[in-house]
Write a structure and sequence with these properties.
Blueprint: E1 3-11, H1 23-36, E2 39-48, H2 61-73, E3 77-79, H3 89-96, E4 102-104, H4 113-143, H5 151-175, H6 180-189, H7 202-212
Parallel strand pairs: 1-2, 1-3, 3-4
Length: 217
């Protein structure tokens, strides 16, 4: 007879599904583990929520539901990786107090709660070290005058602005003698969106005209 298990999957944000820690990847790991260990998945619970914070369990109703299901079936909750539960030692300790066994596929079925605490402590330390290294690297880059942020996205935004200005230039040249307020109203009436969306206003018109080298009244 196959041993029942409850599977729990978690990503901290929607786009994480594209990575190796995505939901599909977790399902494959748990399914393969269950097949190799003659186990049967009796329930699956999926969550999109961060694992941080002292109130993390309160913000993870699917994990709470998985615990209730496992208690009812008297079976373990299985996760693909320990950090799908948390990297926080206190949080892991709180879960252990629920009297529901946990199995982490990458660690194996025979790892006891004490060892899970040890692994969680190592993961928590690793997270703090990575965070500190990142902070120091960003501070050093800023000190050297390096521009931070997504340069690729900045280039895309710049190209989009240039294309928009090119379309506006002939229109604004036709109306350059009009008061800025009237130009703004005309652009809005024509259904031409302002650079940041919505209606035009005199200040926005003036900025665009200056950028294009068009004199304004």
């Amino acid at each position: 007879m196959l041993q029942p298990i409850v599977a729990y999957y978690r990503v901290s944000r929607e786009k994480q599904g594209r990575s190796g820690l995505g939901l599909d990847g977790q399902r494959r790991l748990v399914s393969t583990f269950a097949a190799n260990e003659t186990m049967e998945i009796a329930g699956e619970f999926t969550e999109v929520e961060t694992g941080k914070g002292v109130d993390a369990l309160e913000r993870r109703p699917q994990l709470a539901a998985a615990l209730r299901k496992a208690k009812k079936l008297k079976c373990p909750v299985v996760v693909a990786k320990l950090d799908r539960l948390s990297r926080d030692v206190a949080f892991i300790a709180g879960l252990m107090a629920k009297r529901v066994p946990f199995i982490v596929t990458e660690l194996g079925r025979d790892v006891d709660p004490f060892m899970l605490h040890i692994y969680a402590a190592v993961a928590e330390k690793e997270r703090s070290v990575i965070a500190e290294r990142t902070r120091l690297a960003l501070a050093e880059a800023k000190h050297r005058g390096k521009r931070l942020g997504n340069q690729r996205q900045a280039n895309v935004n710049k190209a989009a602005a240039a294309a928009r200005d090119a379309q506006l230039e002939p229109i604004l040249k036709e109306m350059w003698e009009l008061p800025l307020r009237e130009i703004a109203q005309e652009l809005t009436d024509r259904g031409i969106p302002a650079p940041r969306g919505g209606n035009w206003n005199p200040m926005t018109v003036m900025r665009v005209m200056r950028r294009l080298g068009i004199p304004s009244e």
